[in-house]
Automatic annotation (TrEMBL):
Protein name in UniProt: Uncharacterized protein
Superkingdom classification of source: Archaea
Length: 119
């Protein structure tokens, strides 16, 4: 495991998606409640990795869900993985847990939990 960072937030609509830079709480990326949102992590690794989006609703810790992100392409030598969620009314806060041969590599946004707010 070499390096990883949250690359992009994708907000989907009928005509595709709009991409945003990730924001750390208390700042937000806004998306319509009930919409499909993709959280994309960029990973550079020589071995097999399993990036998991670890997210909670509103106040973050309860309840918490984990979703395995799927590979969607590459960017500047990093492999991109995307996890899709349906955005609840409360919005979400998230980090990535990247499982690799050496253990778990945690990825946050600028030192804090990433946040997506419902509009």
């Amino acid at each position: 495991m070499q390096d990883a960072y949250v690359y992009q937030i994708r907000v989907y609509s009928g005509s595709g998606y709009t991409a945003y830079s990730p924001a750390a709480a208390p700042n937000c990326v806004y998306a319509p409640k009930g919409s499909t949102v993709g959280v994309v992590v960029a990973v550079r690794s020589t071995g097999t990795v399993y990036p998991v989006l670890h997210y909670g609703y509103g106040n973050w810790w309860w309840p918490v869900n984990d979703i395995l992100a799927k590979p969607i392409g590459t960017h500047n030598g990093y492999t991109l993985y995307e996890a899709n969620i349906t955005l609840p009314d409360s919005g979400v806060r998230y980090v990535f847990k990247i499982y690799h041969t050496g253990g778990i590599y945690w990825v946050n946004v600028g030192g804090g939990n990433g946040q997506i707010c419902a509009s």
